[in-house]
Amino acid sequence: MKSLVTASDNITLGLGPKKCHIITFGCQMNEYDSQTMAQLLKDEYQPTAFIEEADLILINTCSIRQKAEHKLYSLLGRLKALKKKKPNLKIGVAGCVAQQLGNKLFEKMPHVDLVIGPQGLYKLPELLKALENGIKHVSETALASDFKIPFVNAPLPKSGQVRGFVTIMQGCDNFCTYCIVPYVRGRETSRPSNDILNEIESLIKQGVKDITLLGQNVNSYGKKGPHKDISFPKLLTLIDKNFGKDIRLRFTTSHPKDLSDELIDCFVELKSLCEHLHLPVQSGSDKILKAMNRHYKIEHYLEKVNRLRKICPEITITTDIIVGFPGESHDDFLRTLDLLKTVRFDQAFAFKYSERPGTAAEAFKNKIPEEIKSERLTTLLELQNQIGLEQYKKMETKTVKVLIESHQGKKLVGRTRGNHIVNLTGNEELVGRLLNVYIERACHHSLNGIIVH
User: Fold this and answer.
1) CB count, 10 Å around CB of 15?
2) Does residue 200 register a pLDDT over 50?
3) What b/e string do you get for 55-92 counting C-beta neighbours within 10 Å, with b at 16 or more?
4) Poorest-confidence range of 18-32, 242-256, 305-319, 392-406?
5) Which of 172, 334, 352, 413 has its CA 20 to 30 A from that of 361?
6) 2-140: CATH homologous superfamily?
């Protein structure tokens, strides 16, 4: 959990007397949605770093794993006392948990005033006006199959922020059996390419130099929804043509079944596209992949990885893995370990399977006991930590271009094109600069370097 909108962030939300505090659970898409809400409220609310000062508290939620839902209820329980002290305080729950629970949230937590799903966040100002006019509870959780993403001026980055995120599509049509996203974010819909270009241009004017395109499955951009003007590779080409000299370009997340040869070629053809791909595999077992409804086999996944590394040898590949999916045998788990040894991911984000209400896997039999899931996760992480360190050690003694993103204490933190985090010593004035850095030492998840003049 982290506070996204605070005074220290220097996000301008207007000079009105009301104060707002936004708390974000979850992924980059949730962070982006929180920034969008901040932009929508900028004429009425100013930020506060202190939750006790807020006239409006918004909690933007994630329901991918059960743990986030538990955090929400714990936080709402603590806010109940604050609401008693400040009866005029408005508390809103946004995001995927809000979409999933809907008006049931009012029953469980009567002190909540507002419930708003991912598609409904664009109606936030009018819903707040309804509360001001005396309506006790307001909600917007309708999912439209033909949903059009409204254009909002680029979400305001933090002062001096070097990285920016742009949502290019919402929703998902893949219906992986473990995933709640299609039920809480709706079906796939793409934004018009002109809106995306305008938002990128706005971020560049605010000093952003590293931009990540966001979507549940960016590879299928342009295929479905009201806007089907160009394909994802053509969108990348258009961005590179217009802004390639000004930015580093990244995207997440990709579905392996939609990783086309045309998209793979972009890593060589487009100068701004960074040599990093996050390609979730989820399991090394074809049996489990079929149960997950992933629509590919391991041999096909490996073919794509091999082609990527053939045409772009320096590319870093990261992935997501779920252990303990229903029906996962010891042999299935060993196949996942073998996949790690074969691909040698630079990083793998691994999680124990978390059952989500409403998904197809909720009804699956042969559930894996919690202690076995924990053992498997520990074993997998130990192996991946070893592989990851060996991959990172390949960077030692190299001099690479590092974009400096932040200054923490006496340390600078930067990022390579391959998405390696680099720690080095330097002054705050270097934030936003692209520097030559000699890599002295590799750690498990970062690099240590010195500036080369």
Assistant:
1) 9
2) yes
3) bbbbbbbbbbbeebbebbeebbeebeeebeeeeebbbb
4) 18-32
5) 334
6) Methylthiotransferase, N-terminal domain (3.40.50.12160)
Cβ(361)–Cβ(401) below 8 Å: no
Residue 134, classified by CB atoms within 10 Å of its CB into exposed (0-12), middle (13-18) or buried (19+), is: exposed
Indicate the pTM of the whole model: 0.91
The per-residue pLDDT for 424 is 96
CA 210 to chain CA mean position, Å: 15
Structure tokens, 8: 């220290």
What is the DSSP annotation of 382-422?
Answer: HHHHHHHHHHHHTTTT-EEEEEEEEEETTEEEEE-TT--EE
Q: What is the pLDDT of residue 228?
A: 66
Give me the helix-helix angle, 330-343 and 370-393, nearest 10°: 10
**C-alpha–C-alpha distance, residues 191 and 208, integer Å:** 21
Question: 412 — phi, psi (to 5°)?
Answer: -105, 145
Residue 409 φ/ψ region, left for φ over 0, alpha for ψ in the -120 to 50 degree band, beta for the rest:
left
Fold of 399-451: OB fold (Dihydrolipoamide Acetyltransferase, E2P) (2.40.50)
- Structure token digits, residue 106: 């009012």
Question: Rounded to an integer, what distance in angstroms lies between the CA atom of residue 184 and that of residue 97?
Answer: 8
More confident residue, 151 or 293: 293
Burial (CB < 10 A; 0-12, 13-18, 19+), residue 111, is: middle
Query: What are the C-alpha distances in Å from 451 to residues 17, 417, 434, 444?
Result: 45, 16, 11, 21
Q: Could you say which DSSP state residue 81 is in?
A: H
Asked if pLDDT for residue 43 goes beyond 70, the answer is: yes
Model pLDDT for residues 130-185, shown as the tens digit of each residue: 999 999 999 999 998 888 889 888 777 766 789 999 999 999 999 999 999 999 99
The reported pLDDT for the residue numbered 226 is 63
Whose CA is closest to 304, among 254, 261, 349, 253?
A: 261
Rg (CA), the chain: 22
pLDDT tens profile 339-394:
999 999 999 999 999 998 889 999 999 999 999 999 999 999 999 999 999 999 99
Domain boundaries along the sequence of the chain: 2-140, 163-393, 399-451
Q: Please say whether the beta carbons of 444 and 388 come within 8 A.
A: yes
Angstrom distance (rounded) from CA 223 to CA 232:
9
